[in-house]
Amino acid sequence: MRVLKFGGTSVANADNIKKVINILEQYSQDKTVVVISALGGVTDLLIKTGTLAANKDEAYKEVLSELEKRHLDTVKALLPVTQQSSCLSKVKQQFNELDEICEGVYRLNELSPRTRDRIISFGELLSSQIVADYYAATNQPCEWLDVRKLIRTNNNFGFAAVDFDVTNQLIADKVNASTTKLFAAPGFVAANADGHTTTLGRGGSDYTAAIFAGALQAEALEIWTDVNGMMTADPRWVPNAKNIAEISYQEAMELSHFGAKVIYPPTIQPVMARQIPVWVKNTFAPQEYGTLIRNTPSVEGEFIRGISSMNNIALLSLEGSGMIGIPGFSKRLFEALAKEEINVILITQSSSEHAICVAINLADVEKAVKAVDLAFEPEIKAGKVDALKVERNLSIIALVGDQMKSHPGISGKMFGVLGRNGINVRAIAQGSSERNISAVISFNDAKKAVTVLHEAFFEFEYKNLNVAITGVGNVGGKLLDQLAQQQAYLQQHLKLKVKVVALANSRKMLLKEEGIALDNWKQELDNSADMQLDEFVAGVVARNLPNTVFVDVTANADVAQIYGKLLSKSISVVACNKIACSSPYNYYQQLKSLAAAYNALFLFETNVGAGLPVIGTLNDLLRSGDRINRMQAVLSGTLNFVFNNYDGTRPFAEVVRQAQAEGYTEPDPRLDLGGTDVMRKIMILAREAGEQLEMDDISNTQFLPASCFDGSVEDFYQEMGKQEAHFQKLYKEAADKGCKLKFVATFENGKASVGLQHIPPASDFYHLYGKDNIVLFYTQRYPEQPLVVKGAGAGADVTASGVFADIIRTARV
Ligand SMILES: NC(=O)C1=CN([C@@H]2O[C@H](COP(=O)(O)OP(=O)(O)OC[C@H]3O[C@@H](n4cnc5c(N)ncnc54)[C@H](O)[C@@H]3O)[C@@H](O)[C@H]2O)C=CC1
Ligand SMILES: N[C@@H](CC=O)C(=O)O
């Protein structure tokens, strides 16, 4: 004996019903009960009909006639013409009855719960009758069961409670006495002891099937629906959600209670008591394995079975010093809520007993506030308890798994993941069964929370990294090339899927949650909206995507000002723009504090030495307890290139132009030539070494005549041309001494300076070619022979690869 239940989508139309009949054919040899839901959408329309009629709206007639037509059409599409008449007349008869009831409702201008149940019962009564007749016409006899005579309930219309003693007996007597193999029964519908129709709650067809399975001690219950079984998370939120092959009754109950809509929560009770296995199968893909719910699921090693969520939650907090150590407060709180029939979904109380928190449905808030404030009126007046605090628009997310209890670290991992993604937890509950860890969070974070938890507990293939890039010039363009080139590698070797979800330059901005195609970004960006920095940042924040990193590849001060906003939303920031770190010390420090406070990373390795590991090396030295005595460095790729290539045979301005053309200079080359870029870099190094240095504290001996800084960048080039003799003199003075010119930065004893120096052949700086940088760290552990970092210190490719490395670092936490 088996019991099968087919849901509304499985019987939504004639084609689907044919699929149901195909599935039933394989059960033709055994006694089988088939429980049928109303045709998809019909229950809602029946509710609408009743409500319209009760509101004296004649439109109810139209809805009814549409419903009648839909059922008649289904019969006509299924049954051969010669066999239609009996089924058609049954349908017409049911609609006549329904018409009369609705007319009564219309006349009385009233819809009682009892009449409402009567009206909505027609959906299942009709659909099951049609399936029974079609099966009988195409296969073998099928007996339609009038569940109103078999399932006995109390008078709680709309959500009636089953009297199992009577029901089990009635069902067993009826089915066992019959020689028919296949029975079709309407789901959802039952009757009270007086024979009045009742219903079992929305989703109650699953429950009907479980009641039959329990009463008949079936070998299995099969719930046929439109998905491949229960899933590890809601697939609308988590596209990588996986099917759960096996799951225990308790886990299934927890998951369905917390929002996994595949199975109606009360369904488990009658089958669990008799240990009847439950299959969840897909009517539209019957070959799929589905989910097996049973006592001891055989899948080993899975600590978490699924993640679920419940929205429209409110949190009520009753707080007050007057509650401490006084028994009876919680009893009174729950009594007040129970009196108003408010369901409590989650409870937490701090061990200090100073506060008790309960989560309820948002819809019950007003009732709850009134009831609780009234119940505690004397204490509130006496100032012992505060008026009830309410937080709205919350969700509950829950990790569910029987095996959690034998495995430490699950909650640590859960809250670590939430914290790293900036998701604030408002309340937590874990029962002693340790089967469910629930957290109350903002509704705005719910999708992100489920996504990151799923990633952490189920997705071992790869982690998604969502990247927002501002600036697609020289460096930004190369960065996008490198990301495109490395996508497959990252996925294969680092288990990272990097998605560029936002892109902007000074003119245009593009936000695309599903990811921007990296082979076509230029065109897409050109065709996108005009750039508004605030809107762009708001868009990145509002999408609230997990593992988001904002990358600043501009040289813009406004962009550098928005890092704080991002970090405080736990969005990591990677910058090659040096403006933030070389702004007044307070801002630099504030960004570091925000990053620490919100579990985000603020990385700017390319601020010094482009792709060279300069800041990383300095940090490693400091973290291991070393102390910096002195830093001496050539930090400008541009200036090193210029002085390596200038010997008076070509105009100085032309060599500078070449440095700009090759992508070594700042977007404004005067920052390089005037030494500002180097001042910024040595200041950033000093700050990283713990010094509170400002730009004004750094001495800079300029080698460029002041007149070069008047006017535009083009004026700057013109003026350098006019000052050629000055540059020739600089070169000659050094060359005459056998020296090279290098623009050197030094930090020692809390002081920093930058300036042009004559470098003799014996110096570490002498053999520094092309656009190379060099940094000498003299430390307590490297007192005489410094630790040296040397290599290309400018250029779009190397800088982009440094930015790339920082981006990947944000994903590895
Ligand atoms: N070139 C190099 O070797 C190195 C460069 N950097 C830094 O890289 C950054 C970028 O340099 P490049 O790519 O050479 O500059 P670029 O001038 O070629 O590109 C700058 C990009 O930023 C965009 N932009 C400017 N203002 C913007 C705003 N308000 N909103 C959105 N986008 C804006 C521009 O449209 C352009 O796409 C600079 O901060 C530079 O200091 C750092 C290390 C080495
Ligand atoms: N303009 C800079 C580029 C790197 O920061 C330089 O020349 O070093």
From TrEMBL:
GO terms for molecular function: aspartate kinase activity; ATP binding; homoserine dehydrogenase activity; metal ion binding; NADP binding. Its cofactor is a metal cation. It catalyses: L-homoserine + NADP(+) = L-aspartate 4-semialdehyde + NADPH + H(+); L-homoserine + NAD(+) = L-aspartate 4-semialdehyde + NADH + H(+); L-aspartate + ATP = 4-phospho-L-aspartate + ADP. Keywords: Amino-acid biosynthesis, ATP-binding, Kinase, Lysine biosynthesis, Metal-binding, Methionine biosynthesis, Multifunctional enzyme, NAD, NADP, Nucleotide-binding, Oxidoreductase, Sodium, Threonine biosynthesis, Transferase. Bifunctional aspartate kinase and homoserine dehydrogenase that catalyzes the first and the third steps toward the synthesis of lysine, methionine and threonine from aspartate. This is Bifunctional aspartate kinase/homoserine dehydrogenase I. Homotetramer. It comes from Filimonas zeae. Residues 318-395, 399-472 form the ACT domain. In the N-terminal section; belongs to the aspartokinase family. InterPro entries: AceGlu_kinase-like_sf, ACT-like_dom_sf, ACT_Aspartokinase, ACT_dom, AK-HD, Asp/Glu/Uridylate_kinase, Asp/hSer_DH_NAD-bd, Asp_kinase. GO terms for biological process: homoserine biosynthetic process; lysine biosynthetic process via diaminopimelate; methionine biosynthetic process; threonine biosynthetic process. PROSITE patterns: ACT (PS51671), ASPARTOKINASE (PS00324), HOMOSER_DHGENASE (PS01042). Pathway: Amino-acid biosynthesis; L-lysine biosynthesis via DAP pathway; (S)-tetrahydrodipicolinate from L-aspartate: step 1/4; Amino-acid biosynthesis; L-methionine biosynthesis via de novo pathway; L-homoserine from L-aspartate: step 3/3; Amino-acid biosynthesis; L-threonine biosynthesis; L-threonine from L-aspartate: step 3/5; Amino-acid biosynthesis; L-threonine biosynthesis; L-threonine from L-aspartate: step 1/5. Signal peptide: none annotated. Gene3D superfamilies: Acetylglutamate kinase-like (3.40.1160.10), Aspartokinase, catalytic domain (1.20.120.1320), Dihydrodipicolinate Reductase, domain 2 (3.30.360.10), NAD(P)-binding Rossmann-like Domain (3.40.50.720), VC0802-like (3.30.2130.10). The keyword Amino-acid biosynthesis applies. It comes from the Bacteria.
